[in-house]
């Protein structure tokens, strides 16, 4: 169950980070509310996963899921670059997340 909590925490982390773009410095009410709710849910789910997972592993995977998701949505929603160098870096993040999961089973 801890891995499910961690996966969901990472997904809400993506919502939190992308939501920051829409808040315009927390000057827009509803995007700000949604962003803060996503952040709170993400942190709560992360704390639940930490009941049984090592903190270093869980935190690295949580941030990895967030980074991968935010980069992907940045390309899809905001037209950010998807250069070969960025693809390589994303691949390294994915490899690190998978590696941590494998050695932490």
Characteristic terms for this protein:
mainly alpha, 4 helices, flat, 105 residues
Lay out the secondary structure:
Blueprint: H1 2-23, H2 29-49, H3 55-78, H4 84-103
Q: What proportion strand?
A: under 5%
Sketch the major β-sheet: none
- Rg, rounded, reads 15 Å
Helical fraction equals: over 70%
Instruction: List how many beta strands DSSP finds.
Output: 0
Number of domains: 1
Distance between the termini: 13 Å
Tally of alpha and pi helices: 4
Categorize the overall geometry.
flat
Order of helices and strands: HHHH
Going by helix content, strand content and strand pairing, the class is mainly alpha
Q: Let me know the average pLDDT.
A: 94
In terms of per-residue confidence, which ranges show pLDDT below 50 for 5 or more consecutive residues? none
Structural notes for this entry:
With 105 residues, the protein is mainly alpha-helical. The protein has one domain (2-103). The protein is 83% helix and 0% strand. The protein is built from four helices and no strands. It has helices at residues 2-23, 29-49, 55-78, 84-103. Helix 1 (2-23) packs antiparallel against helix 2, helix 1 (2-23) crosses helix 3 and helix 3 runs antiparallel to helix 4 (84-103). The model has no long low-confidence stretch (mean pLDDT 94). Its main location: membrane.
């Amino acid at each position: 169950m801890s891995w499910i909590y961690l996966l969901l925490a990472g997904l809400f982390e993506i919502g939190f980070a992308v939501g920051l773009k829409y808040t315009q410095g927390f000057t827009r009410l509803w995007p700000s509310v949604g962003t803060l709710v996503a952040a709170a849910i993400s942190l709560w789910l992360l704390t639940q996963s930490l009941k049984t997972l090592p903190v270093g592993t869980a935190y690295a995977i949580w941030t990895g899921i967030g980074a991968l998701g935010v980069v992907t949505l940045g390309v899809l929603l905001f037209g950010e670059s998807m250069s070969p160098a960025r693809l390589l870096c994303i691949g390294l993040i994915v490899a690190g997340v998978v590696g941590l999961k494998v050695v932490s089973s």
